Amino acid sequence: MVKSTRHAKYELYYHTVFVPKYRRSHPTGKTKERLETIFAEICENKDLELAESEVMPDHVHLFIGSPPKNAPSLIVNWVKGISARKYNQRYDDRVKWTRSYYVGTAGSASKGAVEQYIAEQEGGKE
């Protein structure tokens, strides 16, 4: 769904993947549920849309929608840093993430959507 800010229309989604440090911890069971809750909290606080989240035993997949003002690297740093900090403050077991991550873009800009945007601009709408 196309969203808007004061000066932009956008449909930006990022697929991010990151792994636990040393791949030793296996986020399953309660840990998995706790992490999914924390990821949702972070996205809500940062005005991001958490479209999908999947915590696997050896990695995490997140599909996050964001306004264009947020760089993909910033979003990943927020999610990894804040989630580790919140999790480690709340629970006895520890979560640590590696420094590396994958991020890919996903979105749809069909010919019709671009033509509609141009038509709206010609009509004086902003």
Number of helices: 3
Which oligomerization state do the chains in this entry correspond to?
A: single chain
Strand order of the largest sheet: 4-5-3-6
Instruction: Summarize the helix and strand pattern as letters.
Output: EEEHEEHEH
Q: What is the β-strand count?
A: 6
Straight-line N-to-C gap: 18 Å
- The average pLDDT score comes to 85
Largest sheet descriptor: 4 strands, antiparallel
The geometry reads as: elongated
Task: Write down the Rg.
Answer: 17 Å
User: Which range best describes the helical content: under 10%, 10-25%, 25-40%, 40-55%, 55-70% or over 70%?
Assistant: 25-40%
Beta-strand level of the residues, as a percent range? 15-25%
Residue stretches low in confidence (pLDDT < 50, at least 5 long) are: none
Structural class: alpha+beta
Plain-language structure description:
The protein is an alpha+beta fold. Helices cover 37% and strands 22% of the residues. It contains 3 helices and 6 strands. The strands form 2 sheets. A 4-stranded antiparallel beta sheet has the order 4-5-3-6, covered by helices on one side. A hairpin with a 4-residue loop joins strand 1 (3-4) and strand 2. Helix 1 (30-45) crosses helix 2. It is elongated. The mean pLDDT is 85.
Quick gist of this model?
This protein is α+β, with helices and mostly antiparallel strands and 126 residues long. Helices cover 37% and strands 22% of the residues.
Write the layout of secondary structure elements.
Layout: E1 3-4, E2 9-10, E3 13-18, H1 30-45, E4 49-55, E5 60-65, H2 72-90, E6 102-106, H3 111-122
Antiparallel strand pairs: 1-2, 3-5, 3-6, 4-5
Helix pairs in contact: 1-2
